[in-house]
Amino acid sequence: MAIVQALGFLAMIAASILLGVRLLRLWGRTRETPELTIGLAFLLAGAAGYSSFSALAVVRQSGGDPHLIKLLTLLGLGFTAIGALCNGIGSWRIFRVGNRWPWALVGTLAALMMIAFVGLARGTPGVPSDWIWVGLLSACAIYAWTTAEALLLSGMLRRRAALGLADPQITSRVFQWAIAGGAVVVVILSAFLTRVVLGLGARPPSLATFQSLCGLGAAGAIWIGFFPPAAYRRWVDARAEA
Questions:
Q1: Nearest to 92 by CA among 108, 79, 106
Q2: Where would I find the H helices in the chain?
Q3: What CATH number does the domain containing 232 carry?
Q4: pLDDT digit string (tens) for 73-107?
Q5: Of 68, 185, 200, 212, which residue is most buried, by most CB within 10 angstroms?
Q6: Cα-Cα-Cα-Cα dihedral of 90, 94, 96, 100, to 10°?
């Protein structure tokens, strides 16, 4: 299990950093909002936030200092919240650029995450706080929305691709993005279910392994979607022509 957990952690971090840097370099040329915000989302939530929460789990299991635990919790929530907001803004510019309601959605969730962060920061070290879940579930709501948007667009493109009216490669890329976003939602909800609903304090090894597998799946989807190997591209084209 330890090997799976390590692989999931490293794969998710590496994929998030590589894609985040690539998108920021692309933004340097295009100066478009989606490249900037989605790139920052991968670097902040995918790399920094995931690293902070993974370090938090290790420190908690070893009975670490309460002040260090609080610091890592704040870092994890802060990086995840800002990354989720960047993802929401980028998704608005990609999926719903002509609509105004995403601003209300993202703005409301941003306010909830800010309140949660302040509430967590004012808490006593060593005393569990439910504010962490207010913040994480708000971030989860953004990822759930963007995943739904990607799935809707993927379905539409798949139908058009069947008629030769859409690029199968783009269709596949959007679907892989939905898989990666869905994995984030599953990781947050599984942690919420384990800690709050089942009342388990420490993260059990089975949950850590499951979340690492989700991380591996997300990393694979990110890699295939944005760095597709030639063999995979040929498979997508062959499947579209069949």
A1: 106
A2: 2-30, 33-41, 50-61, 66-95, 101-121, 131-162, 168-192, 205-226, 230-241
A3: 1.20.1070
A4: 999 999 999 999 999 999 999 999 889 999 999 99
A5: 212
A6: 40
How many domains, in total, are found in the chain? 1
Please answer whether residues 9 and 49 qualify as being in contact, where contact means their C-beta atoms are separated by less than 8 angstroms: no
Q: Which domain holds residue 155?
A: 2-241
Tokens representing 129 are 């706080």
Q: What secondary structure does DSSP assign to 149-179, as a single string?
A: HHHHHHHHHHHHHHTT-S-HHHHHHHHHHHH
| Nearest by Cα to 191 from 53, 51, 47 | 53
Tokens of 196: 């709050």
Residue 110 sits at the vertex; the CA angle it makes with 107 and 113, to the nearest 5 degrees, is 155
Enter the pTM of the model. 0.89
